[in-house]
Amino acid sequence: MTATLIDGKARAARLREAVSGAVAALKADEALTPGLAVVLVGEDPASKVYVANKARQTEECGMRSFEHRLPEETSETDLLALVERLNADPQVDGILVQMPLPGHIDTDKVVLAIDPAKDVDGLHPQNAGRIVLGKPGLVPCTPQGCVLLAKEAMGGDLSGVNAVVLGRSILVGKPVALLLQNENCTVTMVHSRSRDIAALCRSADLLVAAVGRPQMVRGDWVKPGATVIDVGINRVPAPEKGEGKTRLVGDVAFDEAVEVAGAITPVPGGVGPMTIACLLANTVVAACQRRGLAVPAM
Ligand SMILES: Nc1nc(=O)c2c([nH]1)NC[C@@H]1CN(c3ccc(C(=O)N[C@@H](CCC(=O)O)C(=O)O)cc3)C=[N+]21
Q1: Residue 213 CB neighbour total at 10 angstroms
Q2: For helices 141-153 and 173-182, angle between their N-to-C axes, nearest 10 degrees
Q3: Axis crossing angle, helix 271-290 with helix 45-60, rounded to the nearest 10
């Protein structure tokens, strides 16, 4: 038995189509063009690629993209001043400050400075708190993408599903667990101090792997027929492709898990593309909520 592949690329393309439709309607009915500002500090090559992809897809959906590339040695004061300018700019509906920031900048301070109404990353404590309370707000993109892919694979309704979230990071594990609880799953959080991690994972009908350890989840950690969402994007050496080459692998040993699972996300082409699509959707949500407009279905 081999698992069904959950096509994150296709699901993300569908979400972007919905975003494009919503943007077209906002332009026609409200003379409103949502805008997303992305801030990149420094020269990290992977971050540069992501930021370029975000800008391109923002424009493809009919929105405005504002890119701010700052040198590595930018001071915290200057970055905070830019965030304040973007907070005050009426053309900017969403603000994303690409992580990780250089070591001399206090990331928490920067996140706190972003207007929660423009926090399309969903990282501000006010938005994190709204998830805890089960209230609508701006939901972090990768966790939202995980939920959408799980729903796609499990017939649209996650009520009563036994879900295990491996990893408890602020960026993914914790918010995914909260979102799944809001979807009426029974959620177990598994982390480095958990006892018998493999057995806990094997109890899951929905397993979300978000630990950042390449191929940690083995085939025999997966319950036969389970849905597996692999959040990991790890670059590992690939000598078989040639000297110095690398490839992307997830937190799941895909070749093993695909033989056991009912459905599984590939890496690449799984959660990654959903993250960016959810960012675009959040920009539309932010643009509408800020103006008291109804948020379109996407
Ligand atoms: N404030 C902030 N928000 C973020 O959401 C954020 C961030 N900082 N810093 C970096 C991480 C990483 N991230 C990814 C998004 C899409 C792919 C993606 O589309 N990946 C493709 C493959 C890309 C490749 O080939 O390298 C895939 O999985 O198919 C990956 C990684 C967002 N991040």
Answers
A1: 14
A2: 50
A3: 50
User: Which CATH superfamily groups domain 141-273?
Assistant: NAD(P)-binding Rossmann-like Domain (3.40.50.720)
**CATH T-level fold of 29-118:** Rossmann fold (3.40.50)
| 143 within ligand 1 shell (Cβ under 6 A) | no
Per-residue pLDDT of the chain (298 residues; tens, 9 = 90+): 699 999 999 999 999 999 999 999 999 999 999 999 999 999 988 899 989 999 999 999 999 999 999 999 999 999 999 999 999 999 999 999 999 999 999 999 999 999 999 999 999 999 999 999 999 899 999 999 999 999 999 999 999 999 999 999 999 999 999 999 999 999 999 999 999 999 999 999 999 999 999 999 999 999 999 999 999 999 999 999 999 999 999 999 999 999 999 999 999 999 999 999 999 999 999 999 999 999 999 9
Catalytic residue among 54, 118, 174, 223: 54
Catalytic residue among 57, 93, 98, 215: 98
Whose alpha carbon is nearest atom 22 of ligand 1? 268
Q: Where are the domains of the chain?
A: 29-118, 141-273
User: ipTM of this predicted complex?
Assistant: 0.97
Its pTM stands at 0.97
Q: With a 6 A CB cut-off, is 275 part of the ligand 1 pocket? A: yes
Instruction: Based on the residue annotation, tell me whether 255 is a catalytic residue of this protein.
Output: no
Q: Which two tokens stand for residue 10?
A: 């296709």
175 touches 122 (CB < 8 A) = yes
